[in-house]
């Protein structure tokens, strides 16, 4: 009897999509401001510091959200726009991903509101997304992070544990928070995905590097027959 195929756990930002969703949302809210470039540079520097491990994920997120003033309508618009920013090799393999949707999860420090339109476009399952959710104020503007999600309580380790996955887990992502899952014994393998961003500090500690998703051989297997 063949061993079970691994469960694939994808990061979202700079992995399934070619950009950082929060950065795109922030850029959208800065439209028309004369100081947009300066403020966006500060926001992106905070993103990079968190992804490269020079700043804790929690501190990076808190600092970024303190700069973000976005309405619900703006969040929804950027979520739709991200579908056009799906990573090229991911888009090419969307039919294959949909066939394997039962064993694909998205575990991201990003936000459900930005991730779910992309998951829908790829044929992936919303119930297999673990991410942050926005907290809204009385004017329907972003007011921080909803503290009730597993991601908010304990980051990616808590979110992955909450998923209750029993098969071997392979992580595919570009950041230190993805690498941490394997180094903490929560996954069997970690592949550094570098089609969009190549972070040397992550690649050097990975089990392998994927410059394109079609290099992930497990996607070439047909899905198992239903019971």
Overall description:
By secondary structure, this protein is an alpha/beta fold. The chain contains ten helices and eight strands. It has helices at residues 21-29, 36-51, 57-67, 72-81, 88-92, 94-99, 112-122, 150-163, 176-183, 200-203; strands spanning 7-10, 104-111, 129-132, 134-136, 142-145, 169-173, 189-193, 208-210. The strands form two sheets. It has a six-stranded parallel β-sheet with strand order 3-2-1-6-7-8. Strands 4-5 form a two-stranded antiparallel ribbon. The two termini are 15 Å apart. The mean pLDDT is 89.
Helix-strand layout with pairing:
Elements: E1 7-10, H1 21-29, H2 36-51, H3 57-67, H4 72-81, H5 88-92, H6 94-99, E2 104-111, H7 112-122, E3 129-132, E4 134-136, E5 142-145, H8 150-163, E6 169-173, H9 176-183, E7 189-193, H10 200-203, E8 208-210
Parallel strand pairs: 1-2, 1-6, 2-3, 6-7, 7-8
Antiparallel strand pairs: 4-5
Helix pairs in contact: 1-4, 2-3, 4-7, 8-9
